[in-house]
Design brief:
Layout: E1 7-10, H1 17-25, E2 27-30, H2 44-54, E3 58-61, E4 77-80, H3 90-95, E5 100-101, H4 108-124, H5 126-134, H6 145-148, E6 158-162, H7 166-177, E7 181-185, H8 196-202, E8 205-208, H9 222-227, E9 232-236, H10 245-254, E10 257-262, E11 282-284, H11 293-311
């Protein structure tokens, strides 16, 4: 362990047993972005200034930008509480010899649970049904709810998962537990079972769980929606950039896609007059898949455990630039 006890600025939301370990490893300044009255995400200059004013050598962040002037400071490590530390200039950190720790799989269960929720809400019309009850419109236009909300059960249907990382695997066993057959496409996973074309042809539910890369951006467009089964259910609890939203709207309007559940929009915002908001067959959530206390506990534990290894002279398990760890 270092002779001088380090100081850590923690702007991520942290909690659980990992927080106790962090407190044993360093003097903590806890200032979570979630505790602020308005959204606060530091840019690189602001974070560097705050680190310098605190005399901190460890930054534990979630969305703050780690780049440029931050890596001019004498840092021990940066802990990015994300599966993929997209908020960190890893090349700059490596050039400065600063290890960057990450938290893979931190929100896998939370996102998988939300995907299940979106499936049920979209296929069973739960949002529209709730609205009818609240408006006293149960017998809308002389119909009865049993007529309006009849649906196929998920049990016995086939779910196609596009992406079989931590979230895809967490969703797979949940869907199997619901009685669904689960097939998966992922060119980087040994457990992948089908090609994308076969998945689109066979799946009653298509659920996206891939990262956004040049290869995956827009991977589900008009041609892919056309290749899906008639009446398919479409779920995207990953990122909106994976699909063509205009093509999705057209597929919903035509009935090719019978229902959809979405948990992300470009720019983290969907205009109230967007065509998606007028479709009762769509359930919309504002990027809340990972918004669980368990996610915070998970990433705190993962970062704390790896920081403990780093400070003890051992190799962290989840360091994105291990080349800076020569000798460990």
């Amino acid at each position: 362990m270092p002779d001088v006890r380090p100081k850590a600025l923690v702007t991520a939301a942290v909690g659980g047993p990992g927080l106790d370990l962090l407190g044993q490893l360093a003097d903590l300044t806890l200032d979570s972005w979630l505790d602020q009255p308005t959204l606060r995400i530091y840019d690189a200059e602001q974070l560097a200034a705050r680190m310098a004013s605190e005399g901190a050598t460890i930054a534990i962040v979630e969305s703050d930008r780690c780049a440029g002037p931050l890596f001019e400071l004498p840092l021990v490590a940066v802990g990015s509480c994300r599966g993929d530390p997209t908020n960190v200039d890893v090349a700059a950190a490596t050039a400065a010899g600063v290890p960057v720790l990450r938290a893979p799989g931190r929100n896998a269960d939370g996102v998988a649970e939300l995907a299940v929720g979106l499936m049920f809400a979209a296929t069973r019309g739960l949002v529209a049904a709730d609205a009818d009850v609240r408006k006293g419109d149960i017998y809308k236009e002389g119909t009865i709810p049993y007529q309006r909300f009849r649906a196929w059960e998920l049990a016995g249907r086939t779910a196609g998962l596009v992406g079989l990382g931590a979230v895809g695997r967490a969703l797979r066993w949940r869907l199997r537990g619901l009685g669904m057959e689960v097939i998966a496409y992922d060119p980087y996973a040994d457990e992948s079972t089908v090609s994308l074309d076969e998945l689109l042809e066979r799946a009653d539910v298509v659920s996206l769980h891939a990262p956004v890369t040049p290869e995956t951006t827009g991977m589900i467009g008009a041609a892919q929606f056309a290749a899906m089964r008639d009446g398919v259910v479409f779920i995207n609890s990953a990122r909106a950039a994976l699909h063509d939203t205009d093509a999705l709207v057209e597929s919903l309007r035509s009935g090719k896609v019978s229902a959809a559940g979405l948990d992300h929009f470009e720019g983290e915002f969907l205009a109230p007059d967007h065509p998606l908001t007028s479709l009762d067959s769509v359930v919309l959530a504002p990027h809340i898949g990972g918004a669980t206390y368990d996610t915070e506990s998970n990433h705190t534990r993962i970062i704390a455990d790896d920081l403990c290894r780093l400070l003890a002279g051992a190799r962290p398990l989840h360091c994105v630039n291990p080349e800076v760890l020569s000798g460990r």
